[in-house]
Amino acid sequence: MTTESTLPSSAAEIENLMAEERKFPPSPGFVAQANAKASLYEEAERDFEAFWAKLARERVAWYRPFDTTLEWDLPFAKWFTGGTLNVAYNCIDRHVERGLGSKVAYHWIGEPGDTRTITYADLQREVSKAANALLELGVRTGDRVAIYMPMIPELPIAMLACARIGAPHTVVFGGFSAEALAGRIQDSQAKMVITADGGWRRGKAAMLKGAVDEALDTAPTIEKVLVVRRIGEHDIPVHMEPGRDFWWHDIVERQSDQHTPVPVDSEHMLYLLYTSGTTAKPKGILHTSAGYLVGTSFTHEMIFDLKPDDVYWCAADIGWVTGHSYIVYGPLANAATGIMYEGTPDTPAWDRWWQIIEDYKVSILYCAPTAIRAFMKQGEQWPRQHDLSSLRLLGSVGEPINPEAWLWYHEHIGGGNAPIVDTWWQTETGMILITPLPGVTTTKPGSATFAFPGISVDVVDGNGQSVPLGGGGYLVLKRPWPAMLRGIYGDPERYKQTYWSRFPGMYFAGDGAKRDTEGYLWLLGRVDDVMNVSGHRISTIEVESALVDDKRVAEAAVVGKNDPITGQAIFAFVILKSGIEADDDLANALRDHVAKVISPIAKPKFLMFTPDLPKTRSGKIMRRLLRDIAEGRKLGDTTTLADSNVVTTIRERSGVAEEV
Ligand code: WT7
């Protein structure tokens, strides 16, 4: 089921926005103290390999220095080959060794209000104990470990323990279902799961261990399960399988807090992170060690203008790449002090974040536009009750930020003077690639501005030809970068096919983009069958296959509908088998099934029963028309449609689409 690629109709909206004349030059005060200098662009352009090589020498503590900066066998990259290092050592021990042991690595805040302060010395001890526990439980260098946890300190500790012994982790977002977890364990052939009994969300215990038990019915590679007690006494009992399941406090606590990090090759797999693509099967995006460390730490220092005294808060969940690169590896490599918050922004009230910023004097905040829009909806009285004057820089990630949200963020959170960095990147890119440099770049609300130094971005037409300034097309990357994905786990063909075949020699990101006459980049959203719901990537086909799982469903087609809060909302068109009655109960059962198979975030907000779907004469579903129907727009060209009555029928019914 493939469909034609079209730029979303929001292109027209962007056209309007580009007429937007508001510009925000950096303030002289900020420029004077900024980490980033305009000269970085020229330096990187002169010789991008030399640029990254110098950074790799300066920023990484190597056991053995690398011989070669880049081996580029398009599309397979190897960076800093011949070198050996340990990522956890670079994120922890070397800071302790240079006297930063008492510096706070994380201020952790539990949703119920409990807190923990973890210094770099604490982290060194805790990670060492966890690494020793993994060894005792039979994990060896190279074995994959699945991590399925809430936002508690044991999550980064578990990741770093894996890195310390060279066991790649695959973190599965705690909101994913047992089936989604099982699929990721099967694909990665993980040997162990690290989890918790549950975590606190919106005042309730969200249980996790039960989902692990269910997943393990179909995930036979798992030998051991390590379980953190976060919830404790609770109505829902936690089953512990003797010989398989172990409590963290029984096993980890009694370990020695001394552990020598294992040197690994620069290209040793650091982690896999599964992400949705244009098929039903999520892809295991493969990241390795040295290049990833260089790319995430350097971008973090430059883009967030990190200084030793900053209190930095990336409010993402570590289950997504944002958390991997900008809560764990980048910030720790830079010896940053970070905030980690377990719960939701509305618990106990909509000022939870602003309270945290006031209490901890947070100076840098990095979050998603969907969160900003949700705060806007609640009203500025919530942030106004708090002293947010410690904030000196704001970041945005995950989806295009609309100028209205940008301006609200600027005024009501940033006090009208904190620069905003709108950062474009992907699970695959590992590090931020398109962003302003604070103190250098004049920003325009809604534009992610320019490629980071050393990164080569272009906007091309359908034939791969660069589009002149002022035009729109497909976003591509034209040279390798250190934190880039090294492949899709176990499927090099799919890697080539997905990213490198649409435009030969170029990485195709799957996003549409425009460049205005001054060269500013404006991201237009996905041009493939991928939706972006609250900054989460969900494949239309994944949701469709969950829907057709139900015996009563004959066919389903899913599209993203613009949504004022979540960016896009999922709109499902469902054809039932003959004789099946369409009613609300069935609609709800189908929605719940999607939540169970994928995650509650993938639950269709709108579900419409329809007798047929618009298809081309060759049988492809015309998702473009479905998007028009979902938006209630005037229909585009229907000349290739097999039966144009179909659209009219669906159109008539769309008035009755159900919203949850
Ligand atoms: C997709 C990648 C990168 C971490 C979070 C998402 C969209 C991301 C922006 C931005 C416009 C953005 C793109 C991209 N996206 N950041 N600043 N402006 N769009 O990671 O789940 O891999 O999703 O998110 O469509 O392709 P991801």
Structure in a nutshell:
The protein is an alpha/beta fold and 660 residues long. The structure holds 5'-O-[(S)-butoxy(hydroxy)phosphoryl]adenosine.
Layout of SSEs?
Elements lengths: L9 H9 L9 H6 L5 H8 L1 H12 L8 E6 L2 E6 L2 E2 L1 H14 L3 E6 L5 E5 H17 L8 E4 L5 H12 L3 E3 L6 H11 L3 E5 L1 E4 L2 E4 L1 H8 L7 E5 L16 E3 H4 L12 E2 L3 E7 L7 E6 L1 H14 L7 E4 L6 H13 L3 E5 L10 H9 L3 E4 L1 H10 L2 H4 L8 E5 L5 H11 L6 E4 L33 E4 L11 E6 L9 E2 L3 H9 L6 E9 L5 E6 L3 E4 L2 E4 H9 L4 E11 L3 E10 L7 H14 L8 E4 L13 H9 L13 H9 L4 E2 L1
Parallel strand pairs: 4-17, 6-7, 6-8, 7-14, 8-11, 11-12, 16-17, 16-18, 18-19, 19-20, 29-30
Antiparallel strand pairs: 1-2, 3-13, 4-5, 9-10, 14-15, 15-23, 21-22, 22-24, 24-25, 26-27, 28-29, 30-31
Helix pairs in contact: 3-4, 4-11, 5-6, 5-7, 5-12, 6-7, 8-9, 11-12, 14-16
The structure holds 5'-O-[(S)-butoxy(hydroxy)phosphoryl]adenosine (WT7).
Characteristic key phrases:
GMP Synthetase, Chain A, domain 3, single chain, Rossmann fold, globular, alpha/beta, binds 5'-O-[(S)-butoxy(hydroxy)phosphoryl]adenosine
> What is CATH's topology name of the domain at 77-344?
Rossmann fold
Overall CATH architecture of the domain at 77-344: 3-Layer(aba) Sandwich
Summed up, the helix count is 21
Overall SS class: alpha/beta
Q: How would you describe the shape?
A: globular
Q: Could you tell me which ligands this complex binds, including any ions or cofactors?
A: 5'-O-[(S)-butoxy(hydroxy)phosphoryl]adenosine
Q: What is the terminal separation in angstroms?
A: 27 Å
CATH class of the domain at 77-344: Alpha Beta
Q: Mean pLDDT, nearest integer?
A: 93
Number of strands: 31
Strand content range: 15-25%
